[in-house]
Amino acid sequence: MSGAGAPDFFYREAQRLGYVARSAFKLLQMQKQYKLIKPGSSVLDLGCAPGAWLQVACQSLGPLKNGGIVVGIDLKKVKVPSLHCDARVQTVCADVMSIPKCQIRALTPQHKGFSVILSDMCPSVSGITTKDAALSFELGKRALDLAIGGNSLAHSDDDIQREGQSDGSSSGLDDDRVLQPGGHLVIKLLESEDVQELSHICKPLFRKASWLRPKATRSSSREIYLICQGFGSK
After folding, report:
1. Given 26, 101, 141, 188, which residue is catalytic?
2. Any transmembrane segments, and where (predicted)?
3. For the whole model, what pTM was predicted?
4. pLDDT tens, N- to C-terminus, the chain (234 residues)
5. Helices (DSSP H) in 61-193: which residue ranges?
6. How far apart are CA 45 and CA 26, in angstroms?
7. Can 38 be counted among the known catalytic residues?
């Protein structure tokens, strides 16, 4: 068999291990390389359908006694997978492009925001390369906006760096963002000339920003992930 839907090693492994999709191995690789999710983390999964990243995120929290939460948001109503998930996982059916930030923060303990934000959002693929890349870029910008705030996106790199550093010791959370100081952000994008724009915004804001094409990515796919670690920790 051939084509994007053909079963392969990761597809078969996902079935064998009880993951609802082969995409689980993308986050598993990120977790192995970057250790984004730790015991007690609060994780937001944007575009969570069908739920494979919910499974990996919950596993990464460790035993139930360690605490932590995983919240998935998707346009579709997503049932929490029965395998690899526990009571710490919940899903919300909403449009990420329009849901208020205060509504997202309200899903976290003391409304403090999330320590890890994962965006695996992808547009409905049209097959037109430039159109699909542009739509993916808009989803990526929205994920970044939710994480660090729209005000930061409008400023220069120097202004962004000062903002990231100035509130790093604050006990509260800026009304314009959902990511906690020191938190991590992952954004999926389709490769294009525009993707570097997000990287340029993130590099002065985070301790480290790097690109990753996971091994589980299909050879025909243009997916690439921007991994941002340590918000405001530079």
Report:
1. 188
2. none
3. 0.88
4. 334 455 689 999 999 999 999 999 999 999 999 999 999 999 999 999 999 999 999 999 999 999 999 999 999 999 999 999 999 999 999 999 999 999 999 999 999 999 999 999 988 877 888 899 999 999 999 999 999 986 566 653 454 444 444 444 343 456 789 999 999 999 999 998 888 889 999 999 999 999 999 999 998 899 999 999 999 876
5. 101-105, 129-148, 150-153, 157-166
6. 14
7. no
